[in-house]
């Protein structure tokens, strides 16, 4: 953790979320406001990814999960999809050293077999390279859809039951958790969506059961360190009850 960054944003005494998940929205509108092509918005958005990753690492967030490309995004015009794939590839190439230097592990969730070979290969290589001695996990949700993830987990479990490897009575939360792409990761504590939209858009539906939400009108390309610090302050001021009463929580203290 970097104590200078923590004190610069008055974050020293706040409860830090262990896992932050972000729906990065508003790149297109950011570009449109300037009468620019949408791709310029995504380019600026990639710079924000860099800034927020570095910031989260500095303040001690252990898991940062970014919704970078949904299964539905394949339906966008081919030119935009191609540009996004190229941007991802550039990001993975240019940030390799930064990730290694700062002990950040890269992880990818989603149906990555649908990604073009050049992006998939680069991501897989970097996942292997960053797999040891890490302090933070950066997960990119690519070609990701939560319903698809849940269906695939259910199929895996059903196959185990069918083959006799598991009984129906063994199925519980733990079995579901370990059958999802996010197996081994804690659930998100804080979900942020930028650009003023207040919906989840098929993102981590199972995993966000007890997450806190933070919606901001700020467009993703404008979402810098100061905005992230505001989200962390908001999280730090909340009481999470996980279904219990205040009295029960006080007794546990
Ligand atoms: C939503 O904005 C954003 C996306 C669909 C893509 C997110 C991609 C990036 C932030 C850049 C590349 C990613 C990485 C990890 C380097 P939108 O296009 O839906 O915006 P709009 O709602 O204003 O049109």
Q: Please describe the biggest sheet, giving its number of strands, its sense, and whether it closes into a barrel.
A: 6 strands, parallel
The name CATH uses for the topology is: Undecaprenyl pyrophosphate synthetase
Number of helices: 10
Bound molecules: farnesyl diphosphate
Strand content: 5-15%
> Which percent bin holds the helix content?
40-55%
Output the CATH homologous superfamily: Decaprenyl diphosphate synthase-like
Shape: globular
The succession of helices and strands, N to C, reads HEHHEHHEHEHHEEHH
Measured between the Cα atoms of the first and last residue, the distance is: 26 Å
Q: Would you tell me the structural class of the helices and strands?
A: alpha/beta
> What's the alpha carbon Rg, rounded to whole Å?
19 Å
CATH structural class: Alpha Beta
Number of domains: 1
Examine the secondary-structure arrangement and name the CATH architecture.
Answer: 3-Layer(aba) Sandwich
| Strand order across the largest sheet | 3-4-2-1-5-6
User: Averaging pLDDT over every residue, what do you get?
Assistant: 97
Task: Please give a handful of descriptors for the protein shown.
single chain, 253 residues, alpha/beta, Undecaprenyl pyrophosphate synthetase, 6-stranded parallel β-sheet, binds farnesyl diphosphate
């Amino acid at each position: 953790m970097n104590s200078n960054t923590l004190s610069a944003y008055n974050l020293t005494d706040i409860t830090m979320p262990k896992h932050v998940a972000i729906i990065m929205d508003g790149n297109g509108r950011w570009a449109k406001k300037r009468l620019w092509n949408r791709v310029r918005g995504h380019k600026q958005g990639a710079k924000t990814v860099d800034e927020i990753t570095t910031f989260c690492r500095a303040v001690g967030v252990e898991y940062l999960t970014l919704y970078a490309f949904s299964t539905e995004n394949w339906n966008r015009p081919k030119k935009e999809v191609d540009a996004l794939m190229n941007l991802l590839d550039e990001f993975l190439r240019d940030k390799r050293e930064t990730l290694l230097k700062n002990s950040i592990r890269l992880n990818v969730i989603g149906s990555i077999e649908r990604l073009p070979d050049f992006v998939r290969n680069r991501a897989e290589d970097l996942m292997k390279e960053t797999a040891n001695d890490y302090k933070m996990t950066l997960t990119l949700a690519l070609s990701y859809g939560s319903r698809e993830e849940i269906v695939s987990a259910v199929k895996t479990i059903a196959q185990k039951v069918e083959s006799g490897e598991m009984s129906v009575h063994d199925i519980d939360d733990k079995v579901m958790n370990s059958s999802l792409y996010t197996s081994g990761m804690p659930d998100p504590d804080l979900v942020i969506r930028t650009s003023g939209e207040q919906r989840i858009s098929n993102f981590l539906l199972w995993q966000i059961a007890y997450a806190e939400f933070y919606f901001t009108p700020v467009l993703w390309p404008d979402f810098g360190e100061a905005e992230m610090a505001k989200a962390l302050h908001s999280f730090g001021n909340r009481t999470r009850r996980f279904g219990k009463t205040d009295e029960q929580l006080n007794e546990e203290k």
